[in-house]
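Task 17 of the worksheet. Students: predict the tertiary structure of the chain below and write it out as structure tokens. Keep your answer in the requested format; marks are given for formatting as well as content.
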Amino acid sequence: MNRARIVGCLRIVAAVGLTFALAHHVNWRALPGQLQHVSWSIAVLAFIALGLQMLVGPWKWQAALKLHDLHFRLPFLIRAYGVGFFFNNLLPSGIGGDAYRAASTWPSDRPGPWAISAVVIDRVAGFGALVLLAGIGALALPGGNRLAHTFTLLAAGLLVAGIVLAMLLRSGRVQSIPQRFRHIKALAAFGEVAQQFRRGAASWLWLGVLSMLFHSLTIGSIYLLFRSLGSPTSMAACSLIAAAAGFATIVPLSINGIGIVEGSFAGTAVALGAPYGVALAVALLMRLLVLPQSLLFGGLYLVSGEGRERRKAAELGAT
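Model answer:
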């Protein structure tokens, strides 16, 4: 317990220190003049795009659950996804929210790791879609941009790896792995996923489409916020900025990535030609605009009961 408290305190210190370091380079005198030229109508569109993510995200998660033959109604998943999002904004990393999502869909008549596997596949599919979108965006940037070149190579490597994995799953060779190690439940769940892939690869394609849509909304909201602040940052550049911020979210060095995400966001934006002050403002707005959604679902979690009967009522047992 003492060790956990020490780690938590260190993350708080890191978040505060990084925030002050980022704020130190802001031209505060020019800030009031910049705020006078903000296009709030465009900023509202960015808020709407982020709100749509709270619908597409559970839809994507539902597709990942169906790969494991787990069927839940979308309204239930929206609520569970939102509560998990609330936890992600309070805990030092995204693990808390993911754990809540897995617990909410934990099956009573099937292996439990399937629910965990569904969350992992949801995460991996989303991360892969973000990298691919960044790779596509990098192709539209000047060829001499080293950052764009790096993302292009990363996206190409991910695409090749995905094709190879799909071929292995389709061939059935992966099926033998869980048979050799039946005592490892996670591998047993992976074997079931392989069977689902062989029965219907179209379901995986649908998961990929939803993942692309989810992160397209992220990129679009970033683009709209830059536009609202009068910065002509391209959609292609915004895709790389979103990917860099996505990478930063998995670094567990501060509370919810505070400071690390904003630093990666602003640093990538500056490398692509955006003003530092505007880039940092957009990064902070991205965090602030999702706060009402987080508080809404957090309030629902606090005022409503959490019980197995609620989850069972939402499960589509017959279908």
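Marker's comment: Residues 201-228 form the longest helix (28 residues). The CA atoms of residues 4 and 10 lie 10 Å apart.
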